[in-house]
From TrEMBL:
Family: Belongs to the sigma-70 factor family. ECF subfamily.
Residues annotated as domain RNA polymerase sigma-70 region: 12-78
InterPro entries per record: RNA_pol_sigma-70-like, RNA_pol_sigma-70_dom, RNA_pol_sigma70_r2, RNA_pol_sigma70_r4_t2, RNA_pol_sigma_r2, RNA_pol_sigma_r3/r4-like, WH-like_DNA-bd_sf
GO MF annotations in UniProt: DNA binding; sigma factor activity
Domain RNA polymerase sigma factor 70 region 4 type: 109-161
Protein name per UniProt: RNA polymerase sigma-70 factor, ECF subfamily
Organism: Phytopseudomonas punonensis
Pfam families with a match to the protein in the record: Sigma70_r2 (PF04542), Sigma70_r4_2 (PF08281)
Keyword Transcription regulation appears in the UniProt entry: yes
Keyword terms, alphabetized: Sigma factor, Transcription, Transcription regulation
Length: 174
């Protein structure tokens, strides 16, 4: 990043931080989360600098990034809440330690992100097989495809799982 890029980013930050924080606070209902996402928005912009033709173009781009981050934030919150609900039903002696809980949450977020990267049909086939335990024939009927295509979908999903496992084990460099 050149000194000129740094100046442009600084000016964008000074010009739009307050507006963006209000925008996110209204969306999220929490000032602290909004402040975090403002910073994340500008980090994204720092990683992928852009030039803009107008003030409204700057705001539009920042709002687009912020909306995406908000969606990610809500997905994470929903996933965490589902996990906490599951934990609440377990006896105290079977509760994971805070360290285990953090690792589990990190893994759940990674799995969720991996599933979102899959094409919709591949994701559906994988979830029907893994969560519902359906055989390929029933998955094919539900998806309106051949059993052979279901096998391809499942192979693609399993490949993604293997890559995710390797990433989580630290074997791959991102």
């Amino acid at each position: 990043m050149t000194p000129s890029d740094t100046t442009v980013l600084h000016n964008l930050y000074v010009s739009h931080r307050g507006w963006l924080q209000q925008f996110l606070r209204r969306r999220l209902g929490d000032s602290a989360d909004a402040a975090d996402l403002v910073q994340d928005t500008f980090v994204r912009l720092l990683l992928r600098p852009r030039s803009f033709d107008s003030h409204s173009g700057e705001r539009s781009y920042l709002a687009t990034i912020a909306r995406g981050l908000s969606i990610d934030h809500w997905r994470r919150k929903q996933l965490e809440q589902a996990w906490l609900t599951t934990l609440a039903d377990r006896p105290q002696e079977l509760q994971p330690s805070p360290e285990q809980t953090a690792l589990i949450m990190e893994t759940l977020h990674e799995v969720d992100a991996m599933l979102l990267r899959l094409p919709a049909r591949v994701r559906q086939a994988f979830l029907l097989a893994q969560l519902d335990g359906l055989p390929n024939r029933e998955i094919a009927v539900q998806l309106g495809v051949s059993e052979r295509m279901v096998k391809k979908y499942l192979a693609q999903a399993l490949l993604h799982c293997a890559v995710l496992e390797a990433e989580l084990d630290g074997l791959l460099v991102k």
